Amino acid sequence: MILNKETAIKTAELLLQIKAIKLEPQQPFTWASGWQSPIYCDNRIILSYPPIRNYVREQFARQIEELYGKPDVIAGVATGAIGIGMLVAEIMNLPFVYVRPEPKGHGRKNQIEGVLHKGQNVVVIEDLISTGNSSLNAVNALKEAQVTIKGMLAIFTYGFKTSIDNFKDANIDLHTLSNYDQLIETALKTNYINQSEAGTLKSWRQDPSNWKP
Q1: Using one digit for the tens of pLDDT, what is the confidence trace for 113-139?
Q2: How far apart are CA 207 and CA 150, in angstroms?
Q3: How many independent structural domains does the chain possess?
Q4: pLDDT tens readout for residues 21-70
Q5: Are 47 and 84 in contact (CB under 8 A)?
Q6: Would you say 172 and 136 are in contact if contact means Cβ atoms under 8 Å apart?
Q7: What's the rounded Cα separation, in Å, for the pair 184 and 202?
Q8: Does residue 211 fall inside a structural domain?
Q9: Does some domain include residue 161?
């Protein structure tokens, strides 16, 4: 769910501006999953642009306080959300931890890195939501640490039905700064894509695993 329309528009504009999101309907990308996709999103690029990363962290901090008050800890999902999660924790003057996809195979074999105590209120930061599986894997690790998950905030979501269902089933509150629908709308208004390309992008999301250019 988007909390603020103005923020959603601005975030989409910035992601397109720095090419953190690339739209190439005519020359699709191949995801690690093997899916053919007319869109590729790498929000880690945000960290290379101080004004934009500051905007994102400020919007996260504002929305966290509006939605949940001030939590005890900010948790970032590794690896994409470690940087931005730490920036959010810094501006909110809160402790920060991050969650690995799985426990380390050596040393203390931690999955959660940082100091976390039972019963603490945690807000999780993610950079991108696709199916939601990796994000919810991090949530499960935090739950095993016996903390309270207030909710998750992400920069961007594709809005796949499967991700919506996954978060609903897990009873996790998800908010994003921007989303796929807003991205297409913004890209059209700025002539980044044309109507035909917008149609391709919309059809891809309906069945991404079987889509072919």
Answers
A1: 999 999 999 999 999 999 899 999 999
A2: 31
A3: 1
A4: 988 888 899 887 888 999 999 999 999 999 999 999 999 999 999 999 99
A5: yes
A6: yes
A7: 8
A8: no
A9: yes
Pairing type for strands 36-37 and 29-30 reads antiparallel
Q: Distance between CA atoms of 201 and 193, rounded to whole angstroms?
A: 10
Q: Is residue 67 in a domain?
A: yes
Cα(172)–Cα(148) distance, integer angstroms: 11
The one-character DSSP state at 48 is G
Contact indicator for 204, 39 with CB cutoff of 8 Å: yes
Identify any residues that bridge with 74 across adjacent strands, giving them in sequence order. 96, 123
pTM: 0.93
Angstrom CA distances, 190 to 5, 22, 184, 195, 205, stand at: 17, 14, 10, 12, 21
Which residues share a beta bridge with 7? none
Instruction: Measure the CA–CA gap between 62 and 7, rounded to whole angstroms.
Output: 11
Gap between the Cα atoms of 139 and 124, Å rounded:
8
Domain hosting 33: range is 5-206
Phi, psi of 80 (to 5 degrees): -60, -30
Asked whether residue 212 is domain-assigned, the answer is: no
d(CA 122, CA 129): 19
Written as one letter, the residue type at 118 is: K
